[in-house]
Amino acid sequence: MESTLKALRDGESVLDLSPRSTVSGGVEDVYGEDHATEDQLVTPWNFSVASGYSLLRDPQYNKGLAFTEKERDAHYLRGLLPPTITSQQLQEKQLINNIRQYQVPLQKYQAMMELQETNERLFYKLLIDHVEELLPIVYTPVVGEACQKYGSIFKRPQGLFISLKEKGKVLEVLKNWPERSIQVIVVTDGERILGLGDLGCQGMGIPVGKLALYTALGGVRPSACLPITIDVGTNNEKLLNDEFYIGLRQKRATGQEYSELLQEFMTAVKQNYGEKVLIQFEDFANHNAFELLAKYGTTHLVFNDDIQGTASVVLAGVVAALKLIGGNLADHTFLFLGAGEAGTGIAELIALEMSKQTKTPIEETRKKIWLVDSKGLIVGSRKASLQHFKQPWAHEHEPVGSLLEAVKVIKPTVLIGSSGVGKTFTKEVIEAVTSINEKPLVLALSNPTSQSECTAEEAYEWSEGRAIFASGSPFDPVEYKGKVYYSGQANNAYIFPGFGLGLVISGAIRVHDDMLLAASEALAKLVTEENYEKGLIYPPFSNIRKISANIAASVAAKAYELGLATRLPRPQNLVKYAESCMYTPVYRNYR
Fold this sequence. Notes:
Blueprint: H1 2-8, H2 52-56, H3 69-74, H4 88-101, H5 105-116, H6 120-129, H7 131-138, H8 142-148, H9 150-153, E1 160-163, H10 170-176, E2 184-188, H11 205-216, E3 225-231, H12 237-240, H13 255-273, E4 278-281, H14 286-296, E5 302-304, H15 305-325, E6 334-337, H16 341-358, H17 362-365, E7 369-373, E8 376-377, H18 403-410, E9 414-417, H19 427-436, E10 441-444, H20 456-462, E11 468-471, E12 478-480, E13 483-485, E14 488-489, H21 496-506, H22 513-525, H23 529-533, H24 544-562, H25 574-581
Parallel strand pairs: 1-3, 2-3, 2-4, 4-5, 6-7, 6-9, 9-10, 10-11, 11-14
Antiparallel strand pairs: 7-8, 12-13
Keywords: Metal-binding, NADP, Oxidoreductase
InterPro entries: Aminoacid_DH-like_N_sf, Malic_enzyme_CS, Malic_N_dom, Malic_N_dom_sf, Malic_NAD-bd, Malic_OxRdtase, NAD(P)-bd_dom_sf
Active site: 139 (proton donor), 210 (proton acceptor)
């Protein structure tokens, strides 16, 4: 991946520490939240000590009916609450029961967002304790529908909206956000939301959802997270004609106007929050995603989850699957449907890991990987007309027009879908790949569920129960000929929360490909024999905070090894250190 991006940077590497950047800034735990034990008292600071009605309206400190008698006296809450005092556990039990009553997934999403905006700690406690049940609600697939209807369900701001109207004033806009100690920013321009296309300003649901997972799964403090949407317009005619659309009503800005706004944004972020703030690009269109990563990868701490996060989680699944399908990574042939930022990012990281294992040049290992786009198999004769990120995959071969034909001639052992187009792994395709392999590895990665290349049921039935299957969105277990099959979820949420935590705890100033490989290897090692017996190639989400701590430790270790970490001295036990830094959402006692 770095080799591809270096070509766009005129050979500059993230390890060169560009003179265009300066090492400065950084985030400290100003109020001592990270260092206080659960038993220690903390002060509920706002701009002054929060009390009375304002305390109940402050999601960071509100505990609802869990305020003690002493706290009710000290903070002027008498009469503002019913007399009963409940525990956080009872509140959690009541809320999960209420959420389960809703039949419509979007109603569950709205209930969770309402909770986040009124009682932050209870929201994260609920999400952590019921992560497998609630993850599909606060993130994919339900967040896709939420983004489509964001204008209709919008109530209050959950992040910053930076539009072309703010050009020249972006630094002032950043200073309007009430929190000063920001460690992670997730930013989108809404042009390619999941597999749903251009949703403009309504893509804000993605940064909000991602950062909720940074906290719940990775333990980054909520107050250190900032969701941002950059609104440069939309080309979605339906939204432009929707009276409830909340964004700029104009066609997307491109070229110099777009670049200047992004440049101002990136400069303002570093100026306001320092060198060590992580900027995660999310759901940018292909042409901008690669360019932004190449442009700012040597000057800022940037990470693109669609390119790098997806690649890392898929590589982890492939490495883990080797125990089920046999052989080493270099023994397998890979065929992708989809050659956008996700597909090429995954392909590049697999080639990089293969190169590392075999000590073979990456130009050679790429030849084990083939990609199919909307025009057919990517081959040498098409190279002149290909976008730059597709060109490394243009191998010498006769033109092939369809995925089915490509399966028959390439004979892949691993079939990966990242096309964003549903139902493209047809019965004929699955049967063809099964005829070549005893245990084909089939990864249908596109989100949301409606865009998945095939369902778990289809994969198992058409392969006669022989496929090892994982998908981007969750599927229920499938019973086929008396046997129950469990499919894994190749969800980026396995990687990016722990990856980000590792960057934060090490004080890293750049992201390097070796960190992505370290994260993949750490995740693959956490798959147990019990998981393998069920056909799973990912560990259960119920252990996600432990998984994130291990990934964070591996990423931090690599940052120290590469000389990119600034938090010194290096902790001796990075796993324990990562766990000690993780936010815990239990209620605190107030003075």
